[in-house]
Write a structure and sequence with these properties.
Elements lengths: L5 E9 L3 E9 L3 E11 L4 E10 L14 E11 L1 H5 L10 E12 L2 E12 L8 H4 L3 E10 L8 E13 L2 E15 L2 E12 L2 E10 L6 H6 L2 E9 L2 H8 L9 E3 L1 E11 L2 E11 L2 E3 L2 E3 L1 E10 L2 E9 L5 E9 L4 E2 L1
Antiparallel strand pairs: 1-2, 2-3, 3-4, 4-5, 5-6, 6-7, 7-8, 8-9, 9-10, 10-11, 11-12, 12-13, 13-15, 14-17, 15-16, 16-19, 17-18, 19-20, 20-21, 21-22
Length: 333
């Protein structure tokens, strides 16, 4: 360190499973990471990184407000995250092979970022025998351009998929997440969509936020978020066994259920509208079977929910209830 300058001539960290090495520095304006690599026991690099970022830490300018140039070149090549995780966890929660590239250029005021990452879990992290694990996949592709601090300038496209993946005791069959900016007339909107299939059930969710004239994050915070969602679960028993917390999976639940969430609006942390309809023709919890269950919940004014529930066990036994809930005071009526 000399004259507000730092030079890292060489850094090397070696262990039984991997070696990390690289160099870098800081000249008062820019932070550099040069020729960083993570190598496994074979000696071949599985992760490589070259990057530079704005580094003016003395002027009082916020990190994302700095105008200096940036660059990123990150490459994964047959990288097994279990190699690193084994240092902290035994057994490792996930293992497999990751491949991908991420590149960025420009500055925070005019950023260009794009990349992809694919991960194929190993047998210990995916469901079923080895032939099933070969088809398991997590994939992420994304691109972003614009001024990081000005949401109205964002142009983005992102796709993420999970297929045949197991994380600890949770099995994920098929989930797809997408995010896109698009022009709707004179407006620019960010749309996020989730689609999934799990244990014979289907679920979906869509959200939307208007970025038009949102020139700051404070402007963005004030924009309402629209949400719609649906779940169709014809076999709750299978879904419960896959996704319930492990300690609850022995609790008997079966039947079918559908849920629809429509016209939900969130504005500055407050729920201003929305409807939830839940219907089940047959629902069994432990030894109790309900022939019909229905829940209707509606936001009648900001932060206030009116709900009605009907449960029918047989021709002579049924339950009807209604009430109101204040989300701000968490009070019931």
């Amino acid at each position: 360190y000399k004259d507000a300058r730092v030079d890292l001539v060489e850094c090397r960290l070696a262990g039984d499973a991997f070696t990390l090495s690289g160099s870098g520095g800081w000249d008062g304006r820019t932070v550099r990471l040069e020729d960083w690599s993570l190598s496994e026991t074979s000696g071949l690099p599985v992760v490589s990184l070259d990057a530079s970022l704005p580094g003016d830490f003395t002027s009082g300018v916020g990190f994302l407000d700095q105008s200096g140039p940036l660059s990123l070149d990150l490459v994964f090549e047959e990288f097994d995250p279990g190699t690193v995780l084994s240092v902290f966890h035994d057994p490792v929660p996930v293992s497999g092979r990751a491949d991908g590239t991420w590149k960025a250029s420009g500055s925070f005021r005019d950023l260009s970022l794009e990349g992809m990452l694919s991960f194929r879990p190993g047998p210990s992290a995916s469901s079923g025998p080895s032939e099933t694990s070969e088809n398991a996949l997590v994939e992420w592709r994304a691109g972003l351009s614009g001024n990081v601090n000005q949401p109205s300038s964002w142009e983005t496209a992102m796709d993420m998929t999970f297929s045949g993946f197991r994380w600890n005791d949770t099995h994920i069959e098929d989930i797809a997440l997408t995010a896109r900016t698009s022009d709707a007339g004179a407006a620019k909107v960010l749309e996020v969509a989730l689609r999934g299939h799990q244990s014979g059930s289907d679920f979906s969710a869509d959200s939307r936020i208007d970025l038009t004239a949102a020139d700051t994050f404070e402007d963005l915070r004030r924009r309402p978020i629209a949400i719609d969602a649906a779940v169709d679960a014809p076999d709750l028993a299978a879904l419960w066994q896959d996704w319930a917390p492990p300690k609850w999976r022995g609790f008997p639940v079966s039947g079918a259920m559908s849920v629809e969430v429509a016209d939900v609006r969130l504005a500055e942390g407050s729920l201003t509208s929305g409807v939830v309809d839940l219907v089940s023709d047959t629902l069994t919890v432990e030894d109790e079977t309900w022939e019909a269950v229905a829940l209707d919940a509606r936001v009648t004014r900001p932060g206030w929910i009116d709900a009605a529930v009907t449960m029918r066990a047989d021709e002579r036994s049924h339950l009807e209830a209604s009430g109101q809930f204040d989300l701000e005071s968490t009070g019931y009526e």
